[in-house]
Amino acid sequence: MILDILKYGDPRLEQKADPVADINGQLKELVENMFETMYAAQGIGLAATQVGVLKRLFIMDCSGGKDPEDRYVFINPRIITTEGEVVGEEGCLSLPGIYLKVARPQRIVAAALDMEGREFTVEVTDLAARCVAHEIDHLDGQLMLNRVSPIKRDFAQRKIRKLVKAGQW
Ligand code: NI
Measured in angstroms, how far is the CA atom of residue 149 from the centroid of ligand 1? Predict the structure, then answer.
């Protein structure tokens, strides 16, 4: 089932998500629906927060569904180490049409639980590192708008206000 993706302006996007306490059937269904939703929207990452579920969980697939090995579920993720910094253009399914240059770590080592409740550690670089940092930000109620200068933020917010007025948001 394709879920509605919350757009910027919805207060839930700015709330901190709670840890997942139980990996049950309901959570498995949510994850399946999130993958369907993310692929339909042509995204490479989606946080539960973005579909209105304030739980610390996100999915990622930098291959866009082409490589099953790139399919990740991160439950209760945490960053262990980061290294370097890369400024790159970033988008967000909750901010459609908005692209901002955001600084993110070049390399991240993160740990999380998988769907079986087992802890795994993964090292990600470049695009995947950008995605992990972006999605963990969502779980903390942070949007990429908070990661750019006030001038760039104002510019993006003005663009969004225009789209809202035009009924295109
Ligand atoms: Ni996003």
Answer: 18
Domain assignment present for residue 56? The answer is yes
Is 57 a domain residue?
Answer: yes
Domain assignment of residue 2, yes or no: no
Domain count, the chain: 1
Q: Specify the pLDDT at position 33.
A: 98
* Cβ-contact 45, 131 below 8 angstroms: yes
Q: Is the pTM of this model over 0.90?
A: yes
In the chain, the largest separation of any two C-alpha atoms, in whole Å, equals 47
Rounded to whole angstroms, the Cα distance separating 127 from 44 reads 10
Q: Is 135 a catalytic residue?
A: yes
Q: How many separate helices (H) and strands (E) can be counted in the chain? A: 3, 7
4, part of any domain: no
Ligand 1 centroid from CA 47, angstroms: 7
Between the CA of 45 and the centroid of ligand 1 the distance, in Å, is 7
Condensed to tens digits (0 to 9), the pLDDT of residues 104-129 reads: 999 999 999 999 999 999 999 999 99
Per the structure, the complete domain to which residue 147 belongs is given by 11-165
Catalytic residue among 29, 32, 116, 135: 135
Please report, for the domain that includes residue 142, its CATH number: 3.90.45.10
Distance 123 CA to ligand 1 centre (A): 20
Hey, what are 120's tokens?
């795994």
Residue 135 identity (one-letter amino acid): E
